[in-house]
Amino acid sequence: MTLAILTCSEYFVDFALNEIRRYHPTVQYIEPLADKHHLIEYTTTFKKLTSPWRNKLAIYLHHLYPLQHQIYIAHDLAQFSQQVRQTLPRFDRADVRMVSTHTHSAHSIRQALCPHPNHRQRNPNILSMVVVDNIAYVGVSPASQNMSPHPFGKKHFRELVPNRAGLKLMEALDSFSIYLRDNAHALDLGAAPGAWTTVLRKRGLRVTAIAPDDMYPTLKTDPCVQHFHMTAEDYLTRCHDRFDLIVNDMKMDAQDSARLMVRYAPYLRNNGIVIMTLKLRMRRTARVLDHSYRLLRKQYKIMQIRQLVSNKKEITLFLRKK
Ligand SMILES: C[S@@+](CC[C@H](N)C(=O)[O-])C[C@H]1O[C@@H](n2cnc3c(N)ncnc32)[C@H](O)[C@@H]1O
């Protein structure tokens, strides 16, 4: 029996399992370890298990690692570290995630296991560990076989953002490998309070921000931000510009948001791109998503879909105008 730990959003567990089973129909769900971490059983090698996503972004899977040992964490971290080293293959980096409170922090366990991570190794062996109560679920896998180069699929950004929404845009730009052109013109739908506009401004874009609510004071005085105090539906009747990029993080039913994006397509330059979140009520989710994609395909090519680590009950799309 070969076990692995799957990490995904607590709202999209079935979707993540379906995503694996599309390529590996015999994968069995064993049990949840905690909200975002699940034990699965597979019959192939770990390399083959993750191979479908070697050159392609997974939608719902955030991380997968082989479960090789379950080790009790005692108070003595030096002893624990020795036990890990004796039972597991050599590793160059340790990614530790605590899902319950423990006397030791993730940082102190990481330090004990791997005080000097080797960042020079071309294909390092990564130790992944989820700690639930006093049990560490541990496995080592080569970075080349992992789903993401980041710990549990979560990239740490040094850039500060004014709110959590800002992380979604940074993660989307990074995941979809989108490089924004300086001085390009962006339309930000549902822009308030303004983290996405701030992220775009830091990359040198001019932003037209549409939001019925107030924006951050720093944006109000920025000459490269034009704020229209209205809904996206109302702005459609007075929009005359053509944009290089439209972003949409509106708190709006997914299908309504998709319909609105179709109406905005004439205001996007040829080959222009869209980054949008589809907010979900988590009822009939598969049908809502399918319908939203069908609507969007009238005007856009869906380039990538990702349930980002920083998304909650939502997914993020990268579209290009047809
Ligand atoms: C999640 S917040 C957006 C956060 C924003 N992206 C940021 O970075 O700060 C959702 C926003 O959608 C706005 N919204 C909801 N319906 C809208 C509509 N019809 N037109 C424009 N904005 C709308 C809300 O007022 C709210 O500011």
Summary keywords:
322 residues, alpha/beta, VC0802-like, Rossmann fold, seven-stranded mixed β-sheet, 10 helices, 30% strand
Describe the structure.
With about 325 residues, this protein is of the alpha/beta class. It has 2 domains: about 1-155, 2-Layer Sandwich (VC0802-like), CATH 3.30.2130.30; about 165-320, Rossmann fold, CATH 3.40.50.150. The protein is built from 10 helices and 15 strands. It has helices at about 15-20, 45-50, 75-85, 105-115, 165-175, 195-200, 215-220, 230-235, 255-265, 285-295, and strands at about 1-5, 30-35, 35-40, 65, 70, 95-100, 125-130, 135-140, 185-190, 205-210, 225-230, 245-250, 270-280, 300-305, 315-320. The strands form 3 sheets. Strands 11-10-9-12-13-15-14 form a 7-stranded mixed sheet, sandwiched between helices. About 40% of the residues are buried. Bound molecules: S-adenosylmethionine (SAM).
